[in-house]
UniProtKB/TrEMBL annotation:
Cofactor needs: FAD
GO terms under biological process: anaerobic respiration
Topology of this chain in the membrane: Peripheral membrane protein
One cellular component term from this protein's GO annotations in UniProt: plasma membrane
Highest taxon of source: Bacteria
GN (gene name): sdhA
Name the UniProt record assigns to this protein: succinate dehydrogenase
Keywords: Cell membrane, Electron transport, FAD, Flavoprotein, Membrane, Oxidoreductase, Transport
Major localization class: membrane
Active-site annotation: 338
Family annotation (Gene3D superfamilies): FAD/NAD(P)-binding domain (3.50.50.60), Fumarate reductase/succinate dehydrogenase flavoprotein-like, C-terminal domain (1.20.58.100), Succinate dehydrogenase/fumarate reductase flavoprotein, catalytic domain (3.90.700.10)
Domain FAD-dependent oxidoreductase 2 FAD-binding: from-to ranges: 36-470
Protein family (similarity comment): Belongs to the FAD-dependent oxidoreductase 2 family. FRD/SDH subfamily.
């Protein structure tokens, strides 16, 4: 086991990034034209990085498995993007955003990276406004803000309930400009199947054309992995169906350490599971917790009656409702961080107070907000004595203006009108804080291989605050990576084009073809989804919202056995030399079956509770997470050594010199 060097610059925290930018090497514009960069993934992190690098003059190749870069899963983000603009005048600052992010991550993220994130957050808003992103505005013309969990200020900029889509369209437009100029070559419907190392440096990838089945070689002077998270490991999640860990896992198997795989976020505001045949879960934005109040029936008999359809939630009196987040966490109420809200929902449902047929749902109720907004609107409209119907109508109009597309989506899926009856929600896998280990420059342990956005581990610790995913992706792509990658590439100005007819490319392509052939040679007893669902149930039941040593040990054994059966008996119809979506899925599930075991191993060795990692053996008498800062205040970075059971742990000790490490409290 070794200690990792994060390459954090010296000096005062607030000056580190400026000092670092002033000291790193640069590549002059004429030399940038001779350097090729591969960007894998075209979501907010990859798309913004590709556009910015091409604008600087580098030659960029982008790869995505979707039919267009604009279909990356960043498009599904709903609630907003954080920035310390303090338009509200409610006390926000760069330091406050930094503090909230460190605290929200339960003191398991790197101090310098998080401060830099807060520092450049305001630039993100300026950049996106210049691109034409239609952020919501308040009556005075300034950009509007709303609150998200874990903070006491309003710093979240939003575009109704489709912020991710609008931000991605901005990055996509910037990319398109560079595609038209010839500075970006866009490879859609391509999947990276391996990373190619030459003399120990990342110099290219092996990709498969998902339409023709052709295996291709692509070279570059550096490779950026920006392919998002690995939440589909659980099968049921809020991720798009195609989201996978393949690019990150291939880099890991070539020498990039994988950090904190067990740090997975469970989002509290998702539409509950409806049946065994479901293949995806749908997120309802955390922004809804600004106005929705979360509750369950106080009495078990009322919860039972609601589950049986004998009682409607609207028939339950106020005094018979348990607004449990407001009761347990009065300072933050319904806007506690996601991990806290998720565990609280699970606790209430486990105690028998769940409200849907499965008993795994709580209510998110907008009645109070509708009536409050309606009264305000009536008074400001000059209606002195409005009746209840008028108040409700005006209130519903305001809620529709703020959240209309989310309410419409809920009604289409659940077939209930959330203006008239409370939404039902339950926690689901939503984001992964773990990922490829990167230093301050966003470089992995492989020289020339960088990782941006959710694909890396650096900014969120053990739990991500809402609206920080878009912030990190855009910060990495627009404002961090374009600086730091130049420091590395300054040594490559005389290298010339990287040839693809080398022994290293030959070997990488052979390994890819051999793996595909092995996948296709299974006995054909079970489908890919059969194995994916089995893996998902193991992960959710034994590595989900709560974990314990016994379950984690059995999960490690079960996943290893499932992986062995997969390689022997998976059924993949069709051929490998044409379009074959079952083959695509099989490759991704094969990687999940390895990552899942490492995930459980990481969770087993971390004998504490922190953020999204809740070990039942380590909790306070009140049921809150109990950290062990003396023994586990580090990022766990795993080195590949063959089988997941043989992975070697390396530690990056986390030092907090500018913030007091203390037990989180939202009470």
């Amino acid at each position: 086991m070794s200690v990792l060097d994060s390459k954090v610059p010296s000096g005062p925290l607030a000056e580190k990034w400026t000092k670092h930018k002033n000291e790193i090497d640069l590549v002059n514009p004429a030399n940038k034209r001779n350097i090729d960069i591969i960007v894998v993934g075209t979501g907010l992190a990859g798309g913004s990085a590709a556009a910015t690098l091409a604008e600087l003059g580098y030659n960029v190749k982008t790869f995505c498995y979707q039919d267009s870069p604009r279909r990356a899963h960043s498009i599904a983000a709903q609630g907003g993007v954080n920035a310390a603009k303090n338009y509200q005048g409610d006390g926000d600052s760069v330091y406050r955003l930094f503090y909230d992010t460190i605290k929200g991550g339960d003191y398991r993220s790197r101090e310098a990276n998080v401060y830099r994130l807060a520092e450049v957050s305001s630039n993100i808003i300026d950049q996106c406004v210049a691109q034409g992103v239609p952020f919501a505005r308040e009556y005075g013309g300034l950009l509007d803000n709303r609150s998200f969990g874990g903070v006491l200020v309003s710093r979240t900029f939003y575009a109704k309930g489709q912020t991710g889509q609008q931000l991605l369209l901005g990055a996509y437009a910037a990319m398109n400009r560079q595609i038209q100029r010839g500075k970006i070559k866009s490879y859609t419907r391509h999947e990276m199947l391996d990373l190619v190392l030459v003399d120990g440096k990342a110099r290219g990838i092996i990709a498969r054309d998902l339409v023709t089945g052709e295996i291709e070689r692509h070279s570059g002077h550096a490779v950026v992995i920006a392919t998002g998270g690995y939440g589909n490991l659980f099968f049921l999640s809020t991720y798009c169906m195609g989201a996978n860990v393949m690019a990150s896992w291939k880099a890991h198997k070539k020498g990039a350490f994988f950090a904190n795989p067990c740090f997975t976020q469970i989002h509290p505001t998702c539409i509950p599971v409806s049946g065994d045949h479901q293949s995806k879960l749908t997120l309802m934005s955390e922004s809804l917790r600004n106005d929705g109040r979360i509750w369950v029936p106080k009495r078990l008999e009322d919860a039972q009656a609601i589950r049986e359809g004998k009682l409607k939630p609207t028939q339950l009196k106020e005094e018979d409702r348990d607004y449990y987040l407001e009761r347990r966490y009065p300072a933050f109420g319904n806007l506690v961080p996601r991990d806290v809200a998720s565990r609280a929902a699970k606790e209430r449902c486990d105690a028998g107070h769940g409200v849907n047929k499965t008993g795994e749902a709580v209510y998110l109720d907008f009645e109070a907000a509708i009536m409050r907004y309606g009264k305000e609107k009536a008074y400001t409209s000059g209606i002195k004595d409005p009746d209840k119907a008028t108040i409700r109508q005006l209130g519903e109009e305001i809620i529709e203006a703020k959240y209309g597309n989310l309410f419409q989506m809920y009604e289409k899926i659940v077939d209930q009108n959330p203006y008239k009856t409370p939404m039902m929600i339950y926690p689901a896998v939503h984001y992964t804080m773990g990922g490829l280990w990167v230093d301050y420059n966003l470089q992995t342990t492989i020289p020339g291989c960088y990782s941006a956005g959710e694909a890396n581990f650096s900014d969120h610790g053990a739990n991500r605050l809402g609206a920080s995913a878009l912030m990190q992706g855009l910060a990495d792509g627009y404002f961090v990576l374009p600086y730091t990658i130049g420091d590395y590439l300054s040594d490559d100005i005389r290298t010339g084009p990287i040839p693809t007819d080398s022994a290293e490319f030959d070997e990488a392509e052979k390994n890819v073809r051999d793996r595909i052939e092995k996948l296709m040679s299974g006995k054909g007893e079970h489908s890919v989804d059969y194995y994916h669902k089995k893996l998902g149930k193991i992960m959710w039941n034994k590595c989900g919202m709560s974990r314990n040593a016994k379950d984690l040990e059995s999960a490690i054994t079960e996943i290893a056995e499932l992986r062995k059966d997969f390689w022997e008996n998976v059924n993949i119809p069709g051929s490998s030399d044409s379009k074959n979506q079952e083959l695509e899925k099989a490759g991704r599930v094969a990687d999940f079956l390895e990552l899942g075991e490492l995930f459980a191993k990481d969770a087993l060795q971390r004998e504490e509770s922190c953020g999204g990692h809740f070990r039942e053996e380590y909790q306070t008498p009140e049921g809150e997470a109990l950290r062990d800062d003396e023994n586990f205040k580090y990022a766990a970075a795993w080195e590949y050594k063959g089988e997941p059971k043989d992975a070697v742990l390396h530690k990056e000790e986390l030092k907090y010199e500018n913030i007091e490490v203390k037990t989180r409290s939202y009470k």
